[in-house]
Amino acid sequence: MTKNVIAFQGELGAYSHEACRQSRPGMDVLPCRSFEEVIEAVRDNKAELAMLPIENSTYGRVADIHHLLPASGLHIIDEAFVRVHISLLGLPGTKLGDIREAMSHTVLLGQCRKFMREHGILPVTGTDTAGSAMEVAKRQEPALAALASPIAGEIYGLDSLADEIEDLKNNTTRFLVMSREPDRKRRANSEGGDLMMTSFVFRVRNLPAALYKAMGGFATNGVNMTKLESYMVNGSFTATQFYADIEGHPEDPSVARALEELDYFTSSLSILGVYPADPLRVRQKATRSE
After folding, report:
1. Phi and psi torsions of 284, nearest 5°
2. How do residues 3-33 score in pLDDT, each as one tens digit?
3. For the CA atoms of the chain, what is the radius of gyration?
4. Is 287 helix (H, G, I), strand (E, B) or coil?
């Protein structure tokens, strides 16, 4: 296996690249063209870890990721919350008033509509955020800018014409760090917090109120479920798989009992990973409980 390499989707300067720098600052990075290529890089021993975005606080879940995770053969060993700061990046010497169009991934375009309207800037869809910054640098059109991370501006030699232009100032993307081998031991996060998370996918049995009954075990055992999403499997309207995140470790008595009850009502159950909660999650949890 290629040690000390973490793969991500996008060009250098993408938010996934920023997630790699924040979560694994000592590792070399491997840019990939697609999520599938990121997964294959780890499976083929070209990288030690994969960094994959799963959801954004403004835009919602990242398309395709939930389908890819169960079949990837990889295991979640960590999560990383990255605050998404969006900059308007233009050619050196240009000013905000010169910009008529801004290029970026469609997800990012949807996260700064207010700024775009206020300045009369038209959106242009690009392949991804850092790739759009690269394209702007390549085209050399003064009226064209990119919406991307500040580090993309540094990498591609663009000036920052406006910073933190996102509509919501708590705009955050959650990433998963994945490995070929699972790591289910209890461990602290980067700030010493000991809250553990468990992620899993399951399908309920063909029984009346099966999902309701399956979820009951988490309520009666006091296990907090932070995420539950459903999606169709193999294009069938009748085959539904669920993805869930819960607080706790599978060896916690309450979690063990809840998973045991869940198993009774499911036709399949697979744990994707056990990992420390990101410090931002811990701080938000503490704030809500006050």
Report:
1. -65, -40
2. 899 999 999 999 999 999 999 999 999 999 9
3. 21
4. helix
The answer to which of 55-59, 198-202, 219-223 has the lowest mean pLDDT is: 55-59
Q: Specify whether the CB–CB gap between 152 and 158 falls below 8 A.
A: yes
CA angle 89, 93, 98 (to 5 degrees): 70
Region 236-243: mean pLDDT is 74
**How many other CB atoms sit within 10 Å of the CB of residue 231?**
13
DSSP 8-state code for residue 5: E
Q: Considering 35, 81, 115, 175, which one is annotated as catalytic?
A: 175
Report the DSSP beta bridge partners of residue 81.
Answer: 174
175 catalytic? Reply is yes
Count CB neighbours of 200 within 10 A: 21
* 148/160 Cα distance (integer angstroms): 10
State the pLDDT confidence band at 271, using cuts at 50, 70 and 90. very high
d(CA 290, CA 37): 43
Catalytic residue among 58, 129, 173, 198: 173
**Cβ neighbours of residue 41 closer than 8 Å, sequence gap 6 or more:** 7, 30, 32, 47, 50
Which tokens is 17 given? 């690249």
State both tokens at 280: 């931002």
Q: What DSSP assignment string belongs to 75-140?
A: EEEEEEEEE---EEEE-TT--GGG--EEEE-HHHHTT-HHHHHHTTPEEEE-S-HHHHHHHHHHH-
Contact assessment for residue 16 and residue 48, using Cβ atoms and an 8 Å cutoff: no
- The answer to whether 16 and 58 have CB atoms below 8 angstroms apart is no
Q: Residues 111, 129: contact at Cβ < 8 Å?
A: no
Q: Are 229 and 66 in contact (CB under 8 A)?
A: yes
Whether 125 is catalytic is no
46: DSSP letter: S
